[in-house]
Design a protein that fits this description.
alpha/beta, elongated
Length: 289
């Protein structure tokens, strides 16, 4: 049996050929307008002789389908359902792609969504149980992958939420950075040690007292006009606006440390806790249980 698949765009047929030809017999794209009137203008014909080839074709067509339509559909959903302009649509589509690939992880709403690979593969497997001798790729996408587009819309909704949060975060960073830049330094050098909890030290390596931290935090609220500024370390650092900050930690991916880095930029140096100078290590720094 030979299955012929018709495509509206040469690039779509080319993408399918590129994926299918991985470990199947070599195929080629043919002009199809002269083969069957009314069908799209490009076709590929695939000889099928074994069930294993059908399963392989289903897997390859699933991969090709996502390569061909996914970005286009994401952009269409963002532009026409949520009415974003071209520039923001591109940014949101990139976030959506990162959510889909797992590059951005830990979003509860995304973890509840069906697996796109499995969904598209299931559609092709079902289709190839009794495949027609010829069919249009666009028709398959339109009628067999309706729920796929619905899942993509859910990903877009999550991506928009992530995009908005990133914008808000960046606005927060820019605002705090401006506040710091306007402040004359109240300290030359501050050391921050994180080993389960944050401890701040002055230039003489004397720890700031709880009362000092509280006073600095209150000052930071007046400086920034923020009501939910971190009171453990960020608020006091903003109030001090030191010329140099040395951070010692074993946990470099801590979210608050990233925020401090983004605000203070070249003023901050990040160091492993083991590199804390010996005389400084004598200070009782115990890991919080």
């Amino acid at each position: 049996m030979t299955i012929t698949i018709y495509f509206h765009q040469y690039e779509e047929a080319e993408s399918a050929i590129y994926t299918i030809n991985g470990n199947m017999r070599r195929l080629s794209i043919k002009p199809a307008a002269v083969i069957k009137q009314g069908y799209p203008p490009w076709s590929i014909s695939i000889p099928m002789t074994m069930k294993t080839e059908i399963e392989s074709l289903a897997q390859k067509m699933a991969a090709a389908t996502r390569d061909i339509v996914e970005k286009k559909k994401l952009m269409h959903i963002i532009k026409h359902h949520f009415l974003y302009d071209e520039e923001e649509s591109q940014l949101i589509a990139a976030v959506a792609a990162s959510l889909i690939s797992g590059e951005i992880a830990g979003v509860p709403e995304v973890q509840q969504l069906p697996c796109l690979d499995e969904h598209v593969l299931h559609a092709w497997r079902s289709f190839f149980r009794q495949p027609p001798e010829e069919f249009s790729f666009e028709s398959f996408v339109t009628f067999r992958l309706k729920h796929y587009e619905h899942i993509l819309k859910n990903y877009v909704e999550c991506a928009i939420d992530e995009y908005k949060m990133e914008l808000e975060y960046q606005m927060f960073i820019d605002h705090i950075r401006r506040c710091v830049d306007r402040q004359p330094p109240a300290a030359d050098h501050v050391t921050v040690v994180y080993n389960g909890e944050f401890i701040l030290f002055d230039s003489m390596m004397q720890p700031f007292t709880k009362e000092q931290i509280g006073g600095l935090y209150e000052k930071s609220l007046l400086i920034t006009k923020e009501i939910d500024l971190d009171e453990r370390v960020l608020g006091p650092l903003v109030a001090l606006s030191p010329e140099k900050i040395s951070v010692y930690t074993e946990t470099f991916d801590h979210a608050l440390l990233h925020t401090i880095q983004n605000i203070f930029e070249e003023k901050i140096s990040l160091n492993h806790l083991s590199s804390l100078p010996k005389k400084k290590k004598r200070i009782n720094i115990r890991k919080k249980s």
